[in-house]
Amino acid sequence: MTGRMHEALDALRATHEEHPPGLTVREVGRVVQVGEGVAYVKGLPSAQAEELLRFAGGLYGMAFNLDPDGIGVILLDESDRLEAGAEVHRTGRILDVPVGKALTGRVVDALGRPLDDKGPVQAAERRPIERDAPSIMDRAPVDTPLQTGLKVIDALIPVGRGQRELIMGDRQTGKTAIALDTIFNQQGTGVHCVYCAIGQRNAAVASVIADLRERQAMDYTTVVVASGDAPPGLQFAAPYAATTIAEYFMEGGQDVLIVYDDLTHHARAYRELSLLLRRPPGREAYPGDIFYIHSRLLERATRLDEEHGGGSLTALPVVETQAQNLSAYIPTNLISITDGQIFLSPQLFQKGLLPAVDVGRSVSRVGGKAQRPAYQQMAGDLRLAYAQFQELEEFSRFGTRLDEETRQTLRHGQRVRAVLKQDQYAPLPVEEQVAVLFATAEGVFDELALDQMEAAQQAVRDAVREQLPKPCKQIRAGETLDDDDQEALLGVARQAIESLMDASSSDADT
């Protein structure tokens, strides 16, 4: 017994020497007012901007307004359990989030707390959600394509790795569907994906996560959720937290895709917080720094040079328009910040022309430099033919007599539009896209009935994949197709169409 006592005393002496006792000064504040999503605190004179504060009961908030007579705090938890007079303590750290490979396949909130019942997140480290964007000298040109698997985008509105491409359109026009198809198309490419849901209904978020799991996309995806019933503070912090998580992979030399769905709800959450904290309202009641909150977020998307790892962060922000009004405040802000936009038309959606991308109002200011040469060989003719068709289609509705050349232009344009249609959750490999689009540009489908187009495309894709492995490999490798390869591709496409027509005739005779 005496020996054990000596061992205990020795351990106490060692601990005392290693950790000598001392007095620590600690600031303690008091809540003086609680609102819906915000609180006012007094008694923390040394608090920093955006510092994480801990309230009684384990609730958290972020110091937002540093006024001479107190602090305006954005609450990151529900305010129902918070009362005036409750103690507030500083944590000494800026609002941060766990990062690391352990977040792959996880569903977390803006603070990195798990929402998927898979236990605590084993993070490599914690990083602040607000970080400086890479400097200009640390960036590399965008010259590598990020394939979406959608013909209309990859051919006509290409996206490069490190680009910021805005997806915009009215409600229920397929914005999220395009983002999800892009995520699904990254399977096997080594691109890590981050999906950030901001202000969405819980049922909609659950549906997205179910789709990601069903198609094994969660194997390379992290989901950050701040749903519509979450406090506005969490909705405001969510995209910054998601970007910090994505930057961990980018700085490790990996290519990353991040989807912000959507920044309209993010702007509304920030407007709500700003008005509650009595910041001066501006246009449409948004605060004066609404442009800055999105620019400092999206400027973090880039491609790093080789000296800094060579990774990239491609951003697909989503914004909702009202009655196709592109000149509204938030859409115009985001158009000016991003490198192009994919505009979805409700008229095309109602006609069943999905994805409902309005090619004439969509643009990619960077992706053309990153587009594969095989696309560039036929994309110009395809865009011109489609634009001519759309213009002629408007005039043809007046019932005037059309000459043969005009009718041929309309026939060709209708086949182009049919080819650009694509089912959801059906992204196509590069070589199959190029084969179908090249055959379309050369008029291979022009004599087919529109109801035969789907079967014809499938026949061409199968034939090219089976009979032309060398050109397919060249297309995947980003090489240009020479004249012989183009002739071979067209020959195989025509043979596939002829075989399809012969089979259709035989069935009709039978």
Could you name the key traits of this structure?
single chain, 510 residues, alpha/beta, Elongation Factor Tu (Ef-tu), domain 3, Rossmann fold, Lysin, 8-stranded mixed beta sheet, 6-stranded antiparallel β-barrel, 40% helix
Largest sheet: 8 strands, mixed
> How many helical stretches?
15
Gyration radius (Cα, Å) is 28 Å
CATH domain fold name of the largest domain: Rossmann fold
**Beta-strand share of residues:** 15-25%
Could you report the average pLDDT, rounded to the nearest whole number?
Answer: 92
SSE-based structural type = alpha/beta
CATH class of the largest domain: Alpha Beta
Low-confidence stretches: none
CATH homologous superfamily grouping of the largest domain: P-loop containing nucleotide triphosphate hydrolases
List how many beta strands DSSP finds.
Answer: 16
State the shape: elongated
Give the spatial strand order of the biggest sheet.
Answer: 8-12-11-13-14-10-15-16
How many discrete structural domains? Answer: 3
Concise summary:
With 510 residues, this protein is α/β, with parallel strands linked by helices. The chain is 40% helix and 17% strand.
Task: Please tell me about this protein's structure.
The chain has 510 residues and is an alpha/beta fold. The protein folds into three domains: 17-96, Beta Barrel (Elongation Factor Tu (Ef-tu), domain 3); 139-371, P-loop containing nucleotide triphosphate hydrolases (Rossmann fold, 3-Layer(aba) Sandwich), CATH 3.40.50.300; 374-509, ATP synthase alpha/beta chain, C-terminal domain (Lysin, Up-down Bundle). The protein is 40% helix and 17% strand. The protein has 15 helices and 16 strands. The strands form three sheets. Strands 8-12-11-13-14-10-15-16 form an eight-stranded mixed beta sheet, sandwiched between helices. Strands 1-2-5-4-3-6 form a six-stranded antiparallel barrel. Strand 4 (60-67) and strand 5 form a beta hairpin. Helix 10 (373-396) packs across helix 11, helix 12 (430-441) crosses helix 14 and helix 13 (453-467) crosses helix 15. The protein is elongated.
